[in-house]
Write a structure and sequence with these properties.
Blueprint lengths: L11 E8 L2 E7 L2 H16 L10 H12 L5 H18 L9 H13 L10 H20 L27 H8 L6 H10 L3 H6 L5 E2 L4 E4 L2 E3 L4 E3 L8 E4 L2 H9 L17 H15 L5 H14 L4 H8 L4 H26 L18
Length: 364
Amino acid sequence: MPKKKPRADGRYSGKVYLGNGKYKYVYGKSEREVKDKLAELRVTINKGVDLSQSTDLSFWIDRFLSREEQKLTPEWFSTCAARADLWKDRLGDRDITKLNTADLEDVLLELARRNPKTGKPSSKKTLTEYRNIISRVFSFAIQNRVLSFDPTKYLTVEKTAKITHRDAITDAQINLIRNTPHPAQLPCLIMIFAGLRLGELAALTWSDVDLNAATILVNKSYNFRSGVIKSPKTAAGTRTVPIPPPLMEILQSAPRVSLLVAPNGKTRWTYSVWIYHLEQYSKRLGFPVSAHVLRHTCCTLYYEAGIDVLTAQRWMGHADPSTTMKIYTHLRNQKEAANISKLAAFFSPSVSDGCQNSPASPEK
């Protein structure tokens, strides 16, 4: 029951017993308001919600991430944590039980207009990642009886959001990597021409390389967090990939140490060291290189070489063929658009060739 006399600040108060000597307090400008809040609390408790837990959004984001870190690769966890940090920055001090769909939509709309990291509108893929991470946080909180309603259920990404595609590096940039020595040079070339993931690359040994057959066996991955060699996450990750001539040339001259891409052949780089070397190499090259972009470049080379999508899927280790198909479809659309432009230029009046000469004057 609410106290009949107001507090010193003029508000009325009431409390609900939660058990274990704990109470939940509510405040209002009148006895009626406090009674309504107490009734609402009792309904919430009857739904099984545990009101004794913290309800700060930032608390539940951190608790969620502490579990995700044990499940995800360092690369993907870094992306998830970055997405979650923005939610903490915008709404972290808010009560998770009081947030509604409109509050969350406001953040996505802000990101759609301008991403604070790039200063440009966020792509549809990026917006989807932001939506998915906050949705999983709320799902985690519901599983732990912090609230019963999920406002992210109605959270959508605008259909008009810009769809972007990761671009491969150019032939000229590939040649620059081939001619620019650096500790990250060999790893970059293996990602470009064989499509290995960073963890697969860190686990690669010379025993996995068959120069006579011109193949690389990919059957393990290095977990940067635990420091343990493990099998690929999916059956598709275990594969044999071809070594094309440009990579064969590099491998034939590479030192025969146990670990193929370790500086001394014995000690593996940590994830932070990998990122450091890729960033330093990017500065030397004059353009950004990352594991994702270089792997995407490999898939692009397969497309340009005329490799069918199912073979490319197998060599890339994609568990879902739609992943490879999306890349191939995007590249095919790009090529078609370029050909349409060429056709338009060919028939442009400003171009003069045999097909566009004026017809000869009739003989008199």
